[in-house]
Amino acid sequence: MAGPILVVDDDLFFRQLASDMLARHGHRVVAVENGTQALEEAARTPFDLVITDVVMPGVDGFALTARLRERDPDQEVILVSHRLDVKGSEMALRSGAADCLAKPVDETDLVLAVDRALERAALRRERAQLRDENLEFARFHNLHQRCLELISQSDLEWLQERIISELSAVCDAQSAALWVLDDRGDLVLRAYRGLLDKQFLTEKMNPEGPLAARLKDAQPWLARDERSVVLYVPLMVSGEIVGLAQLSDPLAGDFRPEHSRDARVLADFAAVGVKNGRRMMALQRLGLRDRETAAYNLSYFTDYASKEIYKARRYGRTFSLLTFSIDNLPLVRVRQGAADAKKAVRGIIRALSKIIRDSDVIAKASDQEFYLLLPETDFFGAMMFVRRAVAAVREEPEVQDVESRLPLALVGGASTFPKDGEDFDELVHRCRRRMDERRASLQRRLMLDGLPFWDEVDLLLGTPNSPKLPLDERAEPSRRGKVADVLFDELQAEIARELMRDPGSRGLLYVGGPEIRSDLPIASGLESAPPDLSSRIYLLGRRVDLESHPALTPVFLEGDERVSRHEFILWLSESAAYALIQRRGRGATWGFHTSDTAVVDGLISKLQAEYDLQPY
């Protein structure tokens, strides 16, 4: 249906005459007496046609035509004047008028000019509608193609990157981030791009927390941060959250309603793609497992590790690679038979599988060697895992059954990206070097694993008449003998300075002695330690005057004669391993000190067990 016609003339008679003529032919008419009123009406209501007198006070017909066509270049205008000569007609056409009529206007001429103008307006509307429909069809076709691509790929790494790329494209966003639900039910940051700084992005979000109400609606929502408007887009499948996308820095300065609509459509397909990708990964894993142990094969593990290396490089993350070897498995096979050898391998894999996370991957590299990949795990965490792994293996019934006849020589090594290397071969090489160090360690050469803490202390300290330690040139330095009286205090002060230099480094420090005092160098050195100090520090001994300390945890051991006769420092961190144990006598101080990681780790583990201290 055609829109109304605006009639503009300061002559009331003409306004009424023109309105009556047009009304008889079924047209709706709005009549005003001057150009100013006409502009106000045109601002409120779109008119298909404007019929205006040329000569009017204020804004005349030519000026009104120019102003109207500034707003809408296609506005149809018919000019009416008492006298139109060739010059007047030329001026009318130059002003943009579609036609010009002379007063008194003949009804037939007026209706004919109006019909021609309205027909042109209708054709332009139809052409604009077809153009918009074609553009909308092309846009939806393009969106459809993008959606199909998201459900046609099963590679999760590719898919996560593609999701934020496609969402950015359809929403004209310069920056995007994506959190995907992990096996523990947390939304974990998996991909980001654009102008975002990773340090300001949350690594994990709980979908059951403050986000729950928003996610339940399954609709995109807008928020504002310090820089710009942010569009959040949930990825949902059958009412279950799969992921959450964040889009920011829109090119136009703001997000439009069509952006939210298109993002919702794309997100629905993306969620299906992510869910299918996870299912495909699960199926791939089932088909790539060793039949005997259910561990993955080396081919899958190597491919998985290469993807983890790419993610770590791309997003500045860290992960750890662990290797375990049953050094005497051939001996078990010869002495006990193939059945016991298989039982030992199966038991070790089962024990490791019980303590790994859903995101961790374990593989069987050979009959006696296994690999583990621990995402988001630093070197200190990897060392703690090696300890837990060995303890878990010793508790496994199948392993205990085999070890009742012949103990297993299980050794583990760890390396961390990028600290120890930036490709798979470098990390494996570093793991094997650390395994060699453990094989050459005093811990293994003296068979210290089964000794309680204080028995091991007595063995390591020995006496002046004890035989020399059986050291290996590959092992880390270890010494026993007379030590300086000031060494205990100097080491505490140096360790305190190191912790203050790098408060973010994780580690464990145990300082033990007859008395826990506030004037101990470690206590005074860490008095101004920051609240985010990552290392855990414990003082063991009899209470004297230390009630509380911002960085230290006192463990009061009243009446323990063994502690009162010894002083020790046990320090294990991402970058250091050191132990000092000393016994003060009448003449000189006798001590043992080492940087052998296996010995330090073993002493700490036994100290924790001796006094029921919580492991890290």
UniProtKB/TrEMBL annotation:
<dbReference type="InterPro" id="IPR011006">
    <property type="entry name" value="CheY-like_superfamily"/>
</dbReference>
<dbReference type="InterPro" id="IPR050595">
    <property type="entry name" value="Bact_response_regulator"/>
</dbReference>
<dbReference type="InterPro" id="IPR043128">
    <property type="entry name" value="Rev_trsase/Diguanyl_cyclase"/>
</dbReference>
<feature type="domain" description="GGDEF">
    <location>
        <begin position="317"/>
        <end position="451"/>
    </location>
</feature>
<dbReference type="InterPro" id="IPR029016">
    <property type="entry name" value="GAF-like_dom_sf"/>
</dbReference>
<dbReference type="InterPro" id="IPR029787">
    <property type="entry name" value="Nucleotide_cyclase"/>
</dbReference>
<dbReference type="Pfam" id="PF00990">
    <property type="entry name" value="GGDEF"/>
</dbReference>
<protein>
    <submittedName>
        <fullName>Response regulator</fullName>
    </submittedName>
</protein>
<dbReference type="Pfam" id="PF00072">
    <property type="entry name" value="Response_reg"/>
</dbReference>
<dbReference type="InterPro" id="IPR000160">
    <property type="entry name" value="GGDEF_dom"/>
</dbReference>
<feature type="modified residue" description="4-aspartylphosphate">
    <location>
        <position position="53"/>
    </location>
</feature>
<keyword id="KW-0597">Phosphoprotein</keyword>
<feature type="domain" description="Response regulatory">
    <location>
        <begin position="4"/>
        <end position="118"/>
    </location>
</feature>
<dbReference type="InterPro" id="IPR001789">
    <property type="entry name" value="Sig_transdc_resp-reg_receiver"/>
</dbReference>
